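Your task:
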Amino acid sequence: MTDTGSNQSFCPERLEAERVVLLPLPDQCMTGDSMDIWYAIIDKENHTSIGMIGMVRRHPEWKNTGLWIVIPDEQNRREGYGMEALGLMERYIFDSLAYQRIAVQVAEWDQGTVCFFKKAGYKLEGVQELGYFSDGVYCDLILLRLLRKEYINLKSSFKIH
């Protein structure tokens, strides 16, 4: 993988953990048009798609990115798939790309996702009041982040990911 510091980047073909594999979604890699890079989260046992995880609002020149994870089927949540996929992306972002920061934004009503990221070591950075608009309603946006130095400390302390 090479991240040239421009809008262009080249994704690895796959990222693999114990139960999931991340495969780049078509047209999401090797393009200068999009700053986002998305991967399908695939259950290795069943060879089925569980969801998606992506680097969004990337800034290669600043060595930071946003991150989104989407697991639409409730049956696949709280099963550890999301945490495995997150671990793969963190390793890719921090170890391969040498980025310094991952930022996450979560609507205030989605406390399950806030807890998920806090469990993974993300720190509360702040609240953007009325920063999210959906279905005609404004709500607060919870801002979380993980820094490379925190990732390294977590990885060495708890042998995570």
